[in-house]
Write a structure and sequence with these properties.
The complex is a heterodimer of chains A (474) and B (307).
Chain A lengths: L2 H6 L2 H4 L1 H8 L9 H10 L4 H16 L21 H4 L17 H10 L3 H7 L10 H13 L2 E4 H7 L1 H7 L11 H9 L4 E5 L25 E6 L4 E12 L5 E2 L2 E6 L4 E10 L4 E3 L1 E6 L4 E10 L2 E4 L2 E4 L5 E10 L4 E10 L5 E10 L4 E10 L7 E10 L5 E10 L5 E10 L2 H8 L5 H12 L1 H4 L4 H19 L1
Parallel strand pairs in A: 2-3, 3-6, 4-7, 5-8, 6-9, 7-10, 8-11, 9-12, 10-13, 11-14, 12-14, 13-15, 14-16, 15-17, 16-18, 17-19
Antiparallel strand pairs in A: 1-2
Helix pairs in contact in A: 4-5, 5-12, 10-11, 13-14, 14-16
Chain B lengths: L2 E11 L6 E11 L3 E5 L6 H9 L4 E11 L18 E3 L5 H7 L1 E4 L11 H20 L2 H14 L17 H14 L17 H15 L3 E5 L7 H18 L2 E5 L13 E6 L2 E6 L1 H10 L2 H10 L1
Parallel strand pairs in B: 3-8, 3-9, 6-7, 7-8
Antiparallel strand pairs in B: 1-2, 1-4, 4-5, 9-10
Helix pairs in contact in B: 2-3, 6-7
The chains are: A alpha/beta (474), B alpha/beta (307).
Chain lengths: 474, 307
């Protein structure tokens, strides 16, 4: 099936088999305390974790659905009660979906075009099959363990590293009270990664998603907790540009990052959700004195995404760098951005956002920079660039600034433009056809992101963008 | 040897009630010749250049643009050619197809493309031209076969290795070619890692246009005010580059300019004066000198007297 065909296939048909799965389970009750107890019990969790889940559930139930943000994506189709069959350990709904051949054609097709080795496809696609991690990765993991670096599944971390998890898990960074979906996440989270890097340690190879393929962390409510102690350094890469098919149409992950004094954490993610998914995440980092946090995000796919990685610059001289890219095609509403709180003097942030919209898709940059009273000598620079392919597509920019200190340096730049006819003609006059010319302009537009990624991810991201564009250009 | 024939070309701005700009242009440029196209602002020189290259902002309402080729121009094509493969009506073709056949447009204001390195761009352009040529000259049976092969090929490489490199020109071969051409134009190697024209000075952009022409080896190059904004040193480099296009590749040059100055370095075989959307007068190199001394009024008077 070509990408062009995909554009013509309606979403209903593409995900038909999922609907069959659902209809068999209508009898299950909604999201209740009992469901939460079952999950926690199944994982054999300590009492404190169960209590946190239950408290989060209560907060989730009390909080209203967010509907009053200006221009926010429509979330009215999100029905949380439908999650239950997929998270209850006693209901085996995944049994029938463990075969690669049963995945929707568009996802299989994209895998093929991305050149994902067959062995990895099952694991990446989110179906049940397991991927045997290669020996080389295991060797690397062993080497890190000698240095005291911990890298494991989040569920495993709750058991094996209880004290440190208890101290950091959804307490000071992303409490469930942060927003309704953070609360939901706190109640039903499962899987994800735990990374601990001790003092003065550099993890010299990016920690990559490949490691996680044989874990349960490929779920939709995964929690990632990264702790980088004083003077340590780590680059964590989550996800994969291959499309993730979700059984239930909500993804609500949580990411918490603790950057110690003089430590440096880079968190890169390239995600591509199937186009029925609501992608509602909460990601936050707290940065101590002279520490540095970098967020690099590529948001592809999904029906609607609301994602605003945030950084709290807590210590003097702490710094933050955000680079985000969003791509919205037909029927997609991608609402992404960044939040930075400058809570100490001489803190520094830069935000660079790139968005592409086509075929009536909508992208929105929603950002907040807050500079607290007393955060003197701080500086921030925000740059948002939007590229639109046609007159049907939209792109909005909502960069909020709250500056409560006078001795600061604030810069903001925004450009919104349609892909230039003169630019296309120039490239065509050199022999590139119309499609290739547009692809070259887009790959140049997102180059600031791709140059930050390891080469194999950059290649995948570029190919993915090409695939996304093919349908409209062909 | 290729010949570009423009006959009775009429063109207007492609929009409702668009202004007519070209009113019957006749012009013929052959390989190895250097033509200068001069004329006052608004006479239609740049429009002629853009219409030759296929700019979508203009609509051709009458006339034709034909590219005639001979054996030499198609010595890279393996398939057997028919008579129609030697004569192309450019007006039916996309800009990239025209480029593949050997038309090059040097822009007065080249586009700046952020994020795309010169190296990437140039290599992709060379390979695109090669592929398009094969496609244009191949007959339909060959094309079907090629499509079948593509279908079977799939992606065999892992993402770690990147896509299979199936372009005609390899990295090493390309580098060698590039280095040679850049030396000719006295360009710094650092250019190659910069983004295409982004932040280039006016002079650097013009050098880059000539570099691209040198790499793409067109049959006919139309250079739109390649001399504007150049200091004397750059003017000499660019001129040497243009002469080399003709002397080493046999490219035919149609050079649009306002000034005699560049013609001292790139001596034209023919000079044409454009007025009100037509060629009003043609002559040899001496015509350019006359224009420099006396302006265009006398040409206009002559033209209207004749009419």
């Amino acid at each position: 099936m070509s990408s062009e065909d995909l554009q013509d296939t309606d979403t209903e048909a593409r995900f038909e088999f999922k609907k069959e799965q659902k209809s068999a389970l209508k009898a299950d009750k909604g999201l209740t305390e009992e469901t939460i107890r079952l999950i926690s019990d199944d994982k054999d969790e300590p009492e404190w974790m169960l209590e946190r889940r239950l408290r989060a559930l209560k907060q989730f139930q009390e909080m209203p659905m967010p509907t009053d943000w200006p221009g926010q994506p429509d979330l009215s189709e999100v029905d949380v009660d439908e999650i239950v069959p997929y998270i209850r350990p006693d209901v085996d709904v995944r049994a029938g979906v463990d075969d690669w051949t049963e995945l929707p054609d568009d996802i299989k097709d994209t895998f093929d075009k991305l050149g994902i080795p067959e062995a990895e496809k099952n694991a990446l696609s989110g179906v049940g099959a397991q991927y045997e991690s290669e020996v080389v990765y295991q060797n690397m993991r062993d080497r890190w363990e000698e240095k005291g670096v911990i890298f494991c599944n989040m569920d495993e971390a709750v058991q094996e590293h209880e004290e440190i998890v208890r101290e950091h898990f959804m307490t000071k960074c992303v409490p469930p009270s942060d927003n309704k979906f953070a609360a939901l996440h706190g109640a039903i989270w499962s899987g994800g990664s735990f990374v601990y890097v001790p003092e003065d340690t550099t993890v010299d190879m990016p920690v990559q998603a490949y490691f996680r393929m044989n874990s349960e962390g490929m779920g939709q409510f995964e929690h990632t907790l990264i702790i980088a102690e004083e003077n340590s350094e780590v680059h964590y890469i989550e996800g994969c540009s291959a499309p993730k098919y979700s059984a239930f149409n909500l993804h609500s992950g949580g990411v918490e990052v603790f950057v110690g004094e003089d430590a440096h954490v880079q968190y890169s993610t390239v995600q591509n959700w199937s186009k029925n998914t609501y992608n509602l995440n909460t990601k936050r980092a707290i940065v101590e004195e002279n520490g540095r946090m970098e967020w690099i995000s590529g948001s592809m796919g999904s029906k609607a995404t609301m994602l605003y990685p945030s950084t709290i610059l807590k210590g003097r001289g702490a710094s933050d760098n955000h680079i985000t890219i969003a791509f919205a095609g037909e029927g997609q509403d991608i609402d992404t951005g960044a939040k930075v709180y400058h809570n100490a003097p001489n803190t520094k942030s830069t935000i660079e956002s790139k968005s592409i919209s086509k075929d009536g898709g909508r992208t929105n940059y929603r950002g907040l920079v807050h500079i607290a009273d007393g955060a003197e000598g701080s500086s921030t620079a925000v740059e948002c660039d939007a590229l639109m392919f046609d007159n049907e597509s939209t792109s909005d920019t909502m960069p909020y600034m709250e500056i409560n200190e006078s001795n600061v340096d604030v810069a903001h730049e925004a450009t919104v433009g349609k892909i230039g006819d003169e630019d296309i003609f120039y490239l065509q006059s050199r022999g590139l056809d119309d499609d290739d010319a547009k692809q070259m302009i887009v790959s140049g537009f997102i180059e600031p992101i791709t140059e930050e990624l390891p080469i194999e991810y950059a290649v995948e991201l570029n190919r993915l963008v090409e695939l996304e564009m093919e349908g409209s250009l062909g | 040897m290729a010949t570009l024939e423009i006959n009775n070309l009429h063109a207007e701005v492609a929009e409702e009630g668009g202004e007519q700009i070209l009113r019957g242009v006749d012009l013929e440029v052959a390989s190895g010749e250097i033509h200068a196209l001069m004329g006052p602002n608004g006479s239609g020189k740049s429009t002629t250049a853009k219409v030759i290259a296929g700019h979508p902002a203009y609509e051709v309402t009458d006339g034709e643009i034909v590219l005639e080729l001979d054996e030499e121009d198609v010595d890279d094509i393996d398939v057997e050619l028919s008579e129609s493969d030697y004569r192309w009506n450019l007006l039916d073709m996309e800009p990239n197809e025209r480029a593949a056949l050997g038309i090059f447009l040097g822009f007065q204001y080249p586009a700046e493309i952020e994020g795309v390195t010169m190296t990437n761009f140039l290599r992709q352009a060379i390979n695109a031209k090669h592929d398009e040529r094969q496609e244009l000259f191949a007959d339909e049976a060959d094309l079907d076969e090629a499509a079948d092969e593509d279908e079977d090929a799939g992606y065999e490489t892992s993402p770690m290795e990147g896509p299979a490199d199936d372009g005609e020109i390899g990295v090493a071969e390309f580098q060698e070619l590039l280095t040679a051409k850049m030396e000719l134009l006295d360009m710094d190697e650092k250019f190659m890692q910069r983004y295409l024209n982004a932040g280039f000075s006016g002079g650097e952009k013009k050098q880059n246009e000539v570099l691209q022409a040198a790499l793409l080896e067109p049959a006919i190059a139309v250079l739109d005010e390649i001399d504007s904004g150049l200091d004397i040193d750059r003017l000499q480099d660019v001129s040497e580059g243009i002469n080399a296009l003709r002397d080493e590749q046999g490219t035919g040059i149609l050079q649009i300019t306002h000034y005699q100055r560049i013609l001292d370095y790139v001596e034209p075989d023919h000079v044409h004066v454009m007025l009100d959307g037509k060629i009003a007068k043609s002559g040899g190199a001496e015509l350019a000198t006359e224009l420099e001394d006396e302006g265009y009024d006398w040409v206009r008077e002559e033209a209207y007297e004749a009419a």
